[in-house]
Design goal:
Structural class: alpha+beta
Distance between the termini: 25 Å
Number of helices: 5
Order of helices and strands: EHHHEEEEHEHEE
Strand order of the largest sheet: 1-2-3-5
Low-confidence stretches: none
Radius of gyration: 15 Å
Number of domains: 1
Length: 159
């Protein structure tokens, strides 16, 4: 795990696109994943997000290739957590989450929340998140859903 660095945007864009277009097919139809990610996003979009004040982490393998990423906004919102399809099920997302939670605790954030996909819902449930509701959406004319979830955490103890 490391913080996002200059030059990571292209690899992060690839992770997002491949995660949605390939890994999400386990839980969503081809029509749904195409609506979710109709094309590869411009890497500058990810670079702007990574530099807007949020915690933005990348997971790298031994070859220093980015295999996953996640972000945490200052209000406790986890907006993105995506992994390359070849590492799904190998603990990368779990380690990304654990690192985000440590950051949240040290920043005094007491509540984490997320709009989780089907597969992410299972991970967040294992991490102690409560399911608040299913959210039915229409994205580019296609019905799709996710889950609003939250976890109340305590801040890290002081000195």
């Amino acid at each position: 795990m490391r913080r996002y660095a200059s030059g990571d945007a292209g690899a992060v864009a690839d992770v997002f696109f491949r995660s949605v277009r390939e890994a999400a097919l386990a839980d969503y139809s081809a029509e749904q994943v195409h609506a979710w990610a109709p094309e590869r996003r411009d890497p500058d979009w990810f670079d702007r997000r990574a530099r807007d004040g949020r915690v933005f982490l990348v997971a790298v393998n031994l070859a220093d290739e980015i295999v996953g990423y996640a972000d945490l906004e200052s209000n406790g919102h986890i907006d993105h957590m995506f992994c390359r399809p070849d590492v799904v099920g190998h603990g990368v997302a779990s380690r990304l989450y654990d690192t985000l939670e440590r950051h949240a605790r040290s920043a005094g954030i007491n509540r984490l929340f997320v709009e989780a996909s089907e597969s992410a819902r299972r991970l967040f449930a294992r991490k102690g998140f409560a399911l608040l509701r299913r959210q039915d959406l229409v994205v580019q004319g296609v019905d799709i859903h996710n889950y609003v979830m939250e976890k109340l955490i305590g801040a890290a103890p002081g000195p």
